[in-house]
Amino acid sequence: MSSKEKWSAVGGWLKDNAGTGAVLVGSILTGNVPAAVAAGAALVSSATGESDPAKVLEAFQKDPGTVMRLKELAVQNDADIRKHVEAMARLDFEKEAAELADQQHQHEQQQLTIRSGDQAKDKFVRWTRPGQAWFFSFVSVAWAFVTRCDTDLELYVLMVFISYPAAYAGFRTADKVGGLIGQAKMLRAGKGAA
After folding, report:
1. Ramachandran sector of residue 19 (left: φ over 0; alpha: ψ -120 to 50; beta: rest)
2. Which of 11, 18, 29, 103 has the fewest CB atoms in 10 Å of its CB?
């Protein structure tokens, strides 16, 4: 177990057992901002007199007075604790915003690729993608009628056939197709229950 995981265990215990006043300290110990975790570790070390996370946790569990000392320290350092919690929230927000921007950029690039193919001067290039999408649309319908998609394998094969026209139409990621598979399984299970 890494040092971060050990301090996270202490923070989890504080959040679950220490009550108000020490909950914020527990939150910064379970966070992912190294400076905040270090500040939280310094607070709990001051309260217990121990610097090893296992010994700190043991001290909190055995002596309620150490939790009271931590609460007193937390009140004295409330502004710093809140600043660290805010930094952790900001970091999470920035990470999520960057991921969303990356997904949007990826979608834009794929749309540009499809549009450039659709507007190509060469008829073969211009007609290939739509032709393949229509072909696999027909294959998907035929497969669904012939096999009735009674088994998982038949359902997965159908999803593979549908993936090309779906990609051409705008579905871009496997998680969306995976969601469709899950929905199809639920529908099929609902028919079997009825």
Report:
1. left
2. 103
Q: Say how many C-beta atoms besides its own lie within 10 A of residue 32's C-beta.
A: 12
Neighbours of 85 (CB within 10 A): 18
Contact 181, 159 (CB under 8 A): yes
Q: Which helix (H) or strand (E) holds 166?
A: helix 152-169
Q: Which residues lie below 8 Å from residue 159, measured CB to CB, with a gap of 6+? A: 177, 180, 181, 184
The CA-atom distances, in angstroms, between 54 and each of 7, 29, 150 are 8, 14, 54
User: What's the rounded Cα separation, in Å, for the pair 139 and 165?
Assistant: 11
Residue 177's pLDDT is: 57
Write the burial class of residue 123 (CB in 10 Å: 0-12 exposed, 13-18 middle, 19+ buried): exposed
3-state secondary structure 87-114: HHHHHHHHHHHHHHHHHHHHHHHHHHHH
| Eight-class DSSP state of 149 | T
Domain borders along the chain are 3-93, 120-193
Q: What is the pLDDT of residues 91-140, one digit of tens each?
A: 889 999 999 999 889 888 877 887 888 888 898 988 888 899 899 999 99
Structure tokens at 161: 């056939």
Q: pTM of the predicted model, to two decimals?
A: 0.46
Q: Is 150 helix (H, G, I), strand (E, B) or coil?
A: coil
Given a cut of 60, whether residue 172 has pLDDT beyond it is: no
